[in-house]
Design a protein that fits this description.
The chain has 5 helices and 6 strands; from the N terminus they run ααββαββαββα. By secondary structure, the protein is α+β, with helices and mostly antiparallel strands. The chain has 2 domains: 45 residues; 132 residues, no CATH class.
């Protein structure tokens, strides 16, 4: 082992001396390449984007079309935190005029987490507000699911709860509304 290390040391020493004596242009080029790599590394660390790109789908006013909106949301660690931040941003509604939010303006996220490829999202009862149905409930859920599954590729199923009551599975939206009124 010592012989191998000695051989490598002697080889590198001899090669380095030969390069110093015969190739000053190669030395300058190697130095400039190293300085360039260090500058790129420094710039990438300094100007690194601490945000994640997210795509949001919202219905267009008076049409059956869906429009996309791209936003950059802060990068957070953990799948549950990312989902919570994304859903909160989704519930804020579109930023562009001419598009409709999925749920009422005051709808907020109660809880969101991911387990074994399934997302569990619980939103507030304002989503059921009969005051001004912005988007029909089936379409709102469909777009909600599209938003989550597009931005989280590892999520296979979405379980949506409105004020703690699961909707769009065994229970219909009418069941959720009637149970909510009993509270």
């Amino acid at each position: 082992m010592k012989k191998i290390i000695a051989f490598i040391t002697v080889f590198l020493k001899n090669t380095g001396e030969k390069i110093q004596q015969t190739h000053p242009v190669a030395q300058i080029a190697a130095f400039l390449v190293c300085v360039g790599l260090m500058a790129v590394l420094l710039l990438s660390v300094v100007f690194h984007s601490w945000t994640d790109r997210a795509v949001f789908y919202y219905p267009v006013v008076g049409k059956k079309n869906v429009h996309t909106e791209i936003r950059y949301i802060p990068h957070v660690k953990g799948q549950d935190a990312r989902l919570s931040l994304f859903v909160s941003e989704l519930l804020l509604g579109p930023g562009e005029p001419g598009m409709l939010p999925l749920y009422e303006k005051n709808t907020s996220l109660i809880q969101a987490f991911v387990r074994k490829g399934s997302a569990y999202v619980n939103i507030s009862a304002e989503a059921l507000s009969p005051i001004a149905p912005i988007v029909d409930q089936e379409r709102a859920f469909s777009l909600f699911k599209k938003n989550v599954c597009t931005n989280f590729r590892n999520i296979d199923k979405l379980y949506l709860y409105i004020d703690g009551i699961e909707v769009y599975s065994r229970n219909t939206i009418e069941d959720a509304v009637s149970k909510n009124k009993k509270r």
